[in-house]
Amino acid sequence: MSEQRVDAVIVGAGFAGMYALHRLLKENFQPIVFEIGDNVGGTWYWNRYPGARCDVQSMEYSYTFDDTLQQDWNWSEKYAPQTEILRYANHVADRFNLRPHINFGTRVLSAHYQEDDQEWLVSTDDNKVYRAKFCIMGTGCLSSTNLPKFKGIDLFSGESFHTGDWPHSPVDFSSKRIGIIGTGSSAIQSIPLIAESCEQLTVFQRTANFSIPAHNRPLDKQYAASIKESYPTFRAENRQMFAAFGSHQSRWDDSIFDVDDDTRQVRFETKWQEGGLGFTSAFGDTGASKQANDIAAEFVRNKIRTIVNDSEVAELLCPDQVLGCKRVCVDSHYFETYNRPNVQLVNVKEHPIEEITAEGLIHKDQHYQFDMIIYATGFDAMTGSLLKIDIAGKDGISLQEKWQAGPRTYLGLCTYGFPNFFTVSGPGSPSVLSNMIITIEQHVNWIIDCMTHLRDNNLSTIEALEEAENDWVMQTNEIAKGTLFPTCNSWYLGANVPGKPRIFMPFAGGFPAYAQICAEVAEQHYRGFELSA
Ligand code: N01
After folding, report:
1. Domains, in order of start, for the chain
2. Which residue has its alpha carbon closest to ligand 1 atom 13?
3. Phi and psi, residue 278, nearest 5°
């Protein structure tokens, strides 16, 4: 089998893969990208379910690397819908002439490090083999769908879809009885729209979720123009924010216990009316103090009780975990949807779904009859797509073996034993706790600067030191322990996938602190890495 030699293999043509490709081309490297999908966009290519949109505002969720790009592109809504984000991804691919370097419809099967040659041998499902000095994994954090192994799942005779792998042609809900399993962000975004156009919708809820209204609307043209006037400043301000977005929203850092109850209610109401993920920045201590969090959580529960007419349904929809412990959802009329006569909520917490049948599903001895079942059951997050590839580093040790007890990285960028192998927004980095495009740019810039440094200094490899990795894993765990994040069964912890090691995967110390550490590491001659000729 012939082997093609390239400088770098990039896996994935989402926002990470596209930017890595663009930067490598500018630096005169010879990269090649492999993408399973037939087009660019990554998560926005697959997640086409009704209502899919970003929960970070459109003026903030875009590339920052090219000022004319950000001046030229016009967003239409406060929160961009999936269709528009996908159009943007396509625009970027065309504008920077990326497509000739992307092999679409191609899955990377394996990447094996060849110690003698200091190269990666990469094989793809079209029976081709590539030799590359570097591997950059832009495989995404939420791209490997999690489909629970329900008994009888293959027996269902109606239509069935996973929100994360939605059909590319329109799905007709009219006159259909539909069951949807899951009440995470994907379900919360899609349920209101599906309910409007189907005959009967039955929602199977295991864990009620916190959701804050988006108050989505057409983007105010004056607001967009004012941001564009000083886009670099706006971006710089956002990079100083914990999650790399939200600098223009109201926020307070004081303790909830420093103000009286009236002030708390006014402040929560302000944040509720503003809408979106910023709700958690009403006070400085709701992410770390359980007592403070309880007060914020009760405000949201009271909102649900006010919105939902049936008090039993309202109570079922009230979450009992810590607010923000699972990612907070952002919705358009989610709770209101339960006031519709054609929507029913079924609690599957104490009694799991028993089985899927040809006609529907069985729960607590009741046989529900459906024309369509929608699995809104989430993802094998952060590690799922990486571990699907047969990746082996030095001494033939596989990444699966190395991460058996949970992912181990240095800075979320590299892992000991795997030279010249980089992960973009991987476990151990702020990743899903931050504005993903900003995090992606920071990671890609670090990686490409590092590759350029190696080339300019006649160095061949960079590898994380075991001790630096151990320290980083310890530091990441310690930071997470100081928050309320590990207190519930979230996908951040891998708790949604049976058998997955329970480790809090993202770095919870905030984007600014993290970016500074990465910059210092590079300035200090790649502290914690071994660079070799
Ligand atoms: O997935 P989820 P998602 N029986 O894991 C339930 C991002 N995102 O696709 O909570 C019954 O949150 C599960 O129950 P439980 C965003 O970061 C972003 O909705 O595990 N139910 C849960 O209710 C988000 O956080 C946007 O008890 C089962 C649901 O399925 C992330 O993607 C939009 C079950 C899965 O919820 C994931 O969201 C959409 C079972 N066996 C998504 N197994 C934006 O706005 C699972 N569930 C950018």
Report:
1. 3-144+380-532 (3.50.50.60), 177-217+243-375 (no CATH)
2. 182
3. -65, -5
